[in-house]
Amino acid sequence: MMTSTPATPVRAPQVLYAQDKNKIFLTINLQDVENTDVKLTANNVSFSGSSNGIPYAFDIELFGEVQPSTLHKVETSRHIELSFEKANKETKFWSRLQKAAGKLTFVKTDFSRYQDEDEDEDEKPDPMAGMNDQLAQMMGGAGGFNPDMLKMMGGNGGAGLAPADDSDDEDLPDDLPELENASQ
């Protein structure tokens, strides 16, 4: 008598989503994907593949139209990156990735590529701007004395330590018993 094993259910991979005024970016987080198939039409993006013998797939009807000829795909051992251009560039930002209202549980915001709608691409703030100036000011220029640093340390040269005359011993009673010897 032959027994059949049930087919492995198809899972949806984690997909990271971001956009700018002109493009959509998707990152499919799967390691060592085999048999990948990505299809992009004007209104739909679909993916299928397997990782460690487990089949994965998704099919998303897109919020707006895109240009399938602009699909750019990069596969690494850790993920697959997709990018493609929006057909109507005057629309600017889409309110969501999929056409239907609601949330796709496997789609998350890609905060590493997140761009606010009001943010201009050419005017992205540099998160490290001014750090060298602040560091140089704190260091007092390569080892020189900086009086501002002294103020930051509490007004003394003890690297923020309490002054020597500010002892907590004055709060202790004078008639404390001697400690017992632990070796007895």
From TrEMBL:
Looking at the UniProt entry, the stretches that span the membrane are: none
Instruction: Specify the domain of life of the species encoding this protein.
Output: Eukaryota
Bias regions of kind Acidic residues — which residues?
A: 165-178
Query: InterPro entries this protein is in?
Result: CS_dom, HSP20-like_chaperone, p23-like
Q: What Gene Ontology biological process does one annotation of this record name?
A: chaperone-mediated protein complex assembly
Give the family this protein belongs to, as stated in its UniProt record: Belongs to the p23/wos2 family.
The chain positions of domain CS read 10-98
Among the GO molecular function terms of this UniProt record, one is: Hsp90 protein binding
Q: What organism does this protein naturally occur in? A: Boothiomyces macroporosus
The identity of this protein, by name, is CS domain-containing protein
What are the boundaries of the region Disordered? 113-132, 137-184
| GO-annotated cellular components | cytosol; nucleus
